[in-house]
Amino acid sequence: MNIQFNPEDFKCKRPFHVEPTNIVTVNDDMQRVTDEASAMNKRIHYYSRLTSSADRALIAPDHVLPAPDEIYVYSPLGTAFKVDSCPDGYGKNSSVVTIFMIWNTMMGTSILSIPWGIKQAGFTSGIILILLMGILTLYCCYRVVKSRKMIPLIDTSNWEFPDVCKYYFGSFGQWSSLLFSMVSLVGAMVVYWVLMSNFLFNTGRFIYNFVHDINVTDIVPGTNGSSKVICPGAASSHPPQNKSVIFSSGNNTGFELFEEWWNKSQTVPFYLIAVLLPLLNLKSPSFFAKFNVLGTVSVVYLVFLVTVKAARLGIHLEYNWFTENDFFVPEFRILFPQLTGILTLAFFIHNCVITLLQNNRNQENNVRDLSIAYFLVGLTYLYVGVIIFASFPSPPLSKECIEQNFLDNFPSNDIMSFVARIFLLFQMMTVYPLLGYLARVQLLRQFFGNAYPSIFHVLVLNVAIVGAGVAMARFYPNIGGIIRYSGATCGLAFVFVYPSLIYVISLHRAGQLTWPALIIHIFIILLGLANLIAQFLL
């Protein structure tokens, strides 16, 4: 994602200085922080130590601030974006750009699991839950946006939501927000590793078979015709990995050797280490920020793929509210919390929404633009989830065959799925170092005061994160499960608890708290808690 500003009056934001090793610029690879700006940064830190951040009496004067070309806004997304303009105290982005940025930020790997989540909840229940979760998370996000303005007598114009949490809850709010932020980051990185292993395996398999002119048939139930759909989960009685049989004349030794060394869970996750671990240790992942547009391209292509597949497969639906048969699932299922866990992460933007909206040229439109962005995100999830579920060929296959990654329902030799996997693999390999960079900045700076204390510290952290990804890809390659666990965990704090508690406390301090407001927000907190507990019970 590309956030850009154009300030003439850089005092309007007073953004803090970012060290050269922590800068990610989308414009060039040069580290643009001068020695003079670095010295200014030390003086700013000196002023900040003289009094609390809430005291405006000893704020750093103008001549201590870095020059306009040295100002960066650090985003919780893991990047530091150069500020280009800031007329009248705000960014230059129009409402359309702001809406698109929010949409682009929220659209992630969760979209691949939405059809599976709808299957787990039931078709009608799934649609209702997507709408309700979208509305609920939008309201909580609205409370996050308004949280700074509820604080009286303090200039909170440069505050992020973790700063608000620290104001209300002290060190507990600071450390808990760090903990839940790390859960979301590491959870996303684990999901990425599992998906990259999956996409790399299928891509390598497709290329090998194409180059060697090998006709391979998956040993799984599936449909016939040009738009083949398979049911990998139904082949549990077969070897769980490279479920294929070769049809060719001659010596099959080479193919068997390839199958042995190119295994989805036993070998491919380890091959990724050689590529991604060195990239994680780079001080500045600025190069990878240039490829953020691939996220948009990937989502657009997925929508195109879903549309084409549905047009070829047709609609296959049958409505049974509480009973299921061999091919269809009920409209309501007790497993629906699995979908709400996924949706909590799918609609999660609460830890960085203030940064995104702060750059809106027309601040009075923030609520409207945020609502429109959420509507478009929900519409995208609904379209992909509903179309995949409705067009899944039942019969001959059961709706239970819908995989946690719906691309797994298309064979490795499917051309459109191959292109989608290529797009997603390359996009994830460029985003993964950015996520690792953000995890490093948040964790190491908190403990050591430096995002890159030494290569040893960074290497230990990265080995631990990569090890978690490899372990999951090896023993628990279920992205739907990983997404719902991490989503419900981090969402409990950032989506449900903190926004509601902060609102209730601020109303209480202002003497405006009413019983309806208290009951409603306690109910929201209980929903978040129930959402988390349900993930471990179902």
From TrEMBL:
UniProt-listed InterPro entries: AA_transpt_TM
Entry GO terms, CC: late endosome membrane; lysosomal membrane
Catalytic activity, as annotated: L-tyrosine(in) = L-tyrosine(out); L-asparagine(out) = L-asparagine(in); L-leucine(in) = L-leucine(out); L-glutamine(out) = L-glutamine(in)
Keywords, sorted A to Z: Amino-acid transport, Disulfide bond, Endosome, Glycoprotein, Lysosome, Membrane, Metal-binding, Sodium, Transmembrane, Transmembrane helix, Transport
A GO molecular-function annotation: metal ion binding
Superkingdom of the source species: Eukaryota
Family: Belongs to the amino acid/polyamine transporter 2 family. SLC38A9 subfamily.
Protein name per its UniProtKB record: Neutral amino acid transporter 9
